[in-house]
Fold this sequence. Notes:
39% of the residues lie in helices and 0% in strands. It is mainly α. The relative contact order is 0.05. Mean pLDDT is 75; it is low at 18-23.
Amino acid sequence: xxxxxxxxxxxxxxxxxxxxxxxxxxxxxxxxxxxxxxxxxxxxxxxxxxxxxxxxxxxxxxxxxxxxxxxxxxxxxxxxxxxxxxxxxxxxxxxxxxxxxxxxxxxxx
Length: 109
């Protein structure tokens, strides 16, 4: 039960004591976000706490939700675009590019 807050531990203990069968514990995610502040018991000598907690801005590049949404939408448009082109031309994309398709790999025994 490590990592659970006190109300969740109490709820799980109550469910375990009242049920006749052994079931997996039901853990409902909390709607509120809780933050945990980890502090040392005693700061080393000569070390002082900063006057304020540094904040970092939201990242704009890399694997962020916005970039992943745009990437997936572009991939879906490209996939369905190729399907439409193949349906209109009655040829596959490789045949339109000039590759021979359907003749095997060329090194049969």
